[in-house]
Amino acid sequence: MAETTVSRAHPALHARVRILETADRLFYSEGIHTVGVDRLIAEAQVTKATFYKYYRSKDNLIVAYVTSRDERARALVADIFATYASPAERLKNLGGRIAGLLRESEFYGCAFVNAAAQFPEATHPVRQAVDVHREWYGVTIEDLFRALGHHRPGDAADDFLLARDGAYAGASLGDPVAAQAALRRAVARSIGQAEA
């Protein structure tokens, strides 16, 4: 009896994950509004009933996509925090990890900025999920600059985030090498201001 329950539960879980992974790939590479539910269903190799059982609507899937991206970002930051002790090392390595993304062949800009651009209404659940991520990210960076002793940690965090967003845009629109270099310089300047 237990084997039957496990074998039935696993394929259901797998279908849910397959849908989300398919959405992640397509939403990020092609844009959220350009990918329809029928295509998601076909590429995830699930039935329409299975799709609606787990996500109920495309908007719910989009929120799950943004939330999944947020969870990955938080895991990346947690990994950096576990690896590096000082705030300066953490900031430098976070900037370095971001810079490393800019030259990947499948890089299409910031998933959060891309989602926000497609859902500009502040009350839309997708936009709210983006805002939750950006708020957490901003507070995390500000806390690092505060721990570093920066005299204006909020301003330094704003500078970091603007440099990151600009590097994402610059890399996706033109020159990822220049975007990497500019991001690294901006992060180093912000760290240097605190250490001066």
Automatic annotation (TrEMBL):
Q: Which UniProt keywords apply?
A: DNA-binding, Transcription, Transcription regulation
Using the record's annotation, list all stretches that form the HTH tetR-type domain: 13-73
Any stretches that span the bilayer, and where are they? none
The Gene Ontology terms for molecular function here are: DNA binding
Give the DNA-binding residues: 36-55
Q: What is this protein called?
A: AcrR family transcriptional regulator
